[in-house]
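Write out the bound-state structure for NAP.
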Amino acid sequence: MPQIRSNFMSRIKVGIMGGTFDPIHFGHLVVAEEAYTSLNLSEVIFVPTGNPPHKKFKMVTPAEDRYIMTCMAIVDNPHFKISKIEIEREGTSHTIDTLREMRHWYLPKEVEFFFITGIDAVLQMTSWKEPSAIAKIAHIVAASRPGYNISQLESLPEDIREAVIPLEIPLLAISSTEIRRRIAAGQSIRYFLPWTVEHYIYKKNLYSLEGR
Ligand code: NAP
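---
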């Protein structure tokens, strides 16, 4: 039977949740869910970074572990998906390359991208590869973080600022850095992240001083 396509195609609004997720925690999940509901997105695709350019001199957990932890964290949410696009691409991961590749997954007129990340990452955007091109391809959703103010976004160049959508999140003072610090110090991380992810971390001895 021939496929009948409606002339009234509505655009799919796709959230792209970029992050190192080292490890993923409830702060990330709250941001993704808040973006999904308040921006009326069709889905949110989590994209764990492969080789982040800004972390060349830092120790980052192997991509496969970060990918597995992210899968575990999102599995019970039907509108959350995950992609290995950055992990499987050779070389350094740049957001613009990811967005250009993802555009081929959809017909250009049918999709609207919302790149979601923390406000502190957005404030560094001028140092990224082709920031103006990113702002042309996607809306940039800047999630609030403790210690940062939405007014700081005024410092961005106009073309980037126009693409930015600030997203106020109930402030959860959880960060991946704090989780890693607590594990290394032998402190509890219970209720910071899904228990499945917590168990994976202990099973693989991630972030402990001996595990390094
Ligand atoms: P980061 O420096 O680790 O994180 C910056 C801040 O944003 C941290 O406070 C982090 O909190 C928070 N954060 C990260 N992802 C978040 C998310 N999806 N929602 C809410 N908060 C988030 O930055 P990153 O995670 O490595 O990178 C963020 C995104 O920017 C990635 O997609 C990365 O590829 C992209 N990026 C691109 C370039 C480039 O193209 N040249 C350069 C830098 C970053 P936690 O520590 O708790 O996660």
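---
The mean pLDDT is 91.
The pocket of NAP is lined by residues 17-20, 27-28, 31, 49, 52-54, 93-95, 116-118, 120-121, 128-129, 143, 145, 175-177 (CB under 6 Å).
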